[in-house]
């Protein structure tokens, strides 16, 4: 991690005896934290009768696509508990079947969330996301109101670009 001489010198100026961890040590620690988090989330989800989901795909400034999946449930005091289930770089084509397979793997294999626990999923109105979630495998599909309003403002009011009759 800290292999550049400038960074090593900066760290040494703060604490001359400090030896930065190797990238292998950091990778091992991150891996341990990740597996502990997944285990804790699995335990929590097994005790929860109803779980709702959100899924989204977006493009970063570096032109890479990412997909996220979150779970939302209530605790014993009826406070909302949001949980990140997955955040991955999306490679290959963004076909509905690939998006659906990703979500199914996370829910079925990784977190073992039973179909009777799934009360719904909120997504944007992108064609592939709608097609991936339309069949009720994750509960009913709901349009994310934040995405809907963003599209209304962006495409309907034409504040940033001229009107596009196809949208």
CATH 2nd-level architecture of the largest domain: 2-Layer Sandwich
For the largest sheet, list the strands in their spatial order.
3-2-1-4-5
CA(first)-CA(last) distance = 46 Å
Indicate how many domains the architecture comprises: 2
Classify the beta-strand content into a percent band: 15-25%
Q: What is the H/E order?
A: HHEEEHEHEH
Whole-number mean pLDDT? 90
Largest sheet: 5 strands, mixed
Q: Helical stretch count?
A: 5
* CATH domain fold name of the largest domain: Nucleotidyltransferase, domain 5
The dominant shape is extended
Structural class: alpha/beta
Give the % helix: 40-55%
Keywords: Metal-binding, Nucleus, Zinc, Zinc-finger
GO molecular function: zinc ion binding
Subcellular location: Nucleus
Protein name: Transposase
Question: Would you kindly provide a brief summary of this structure?
Answer:
It is found in: Nucleus. This protein is of the alpha/beta class.
Write the layout of secondary structure elements.
Elements lengths: L4 H10 L8 H24 L4 E9 L5 E10 L5 E10 L6 H15 L7 E6 L3 H7 L7 E3 L1 H12 L11
Parallel strand pairs: 1-4, 4-5
Antiparallel strand pairs: 1-2, 2-3
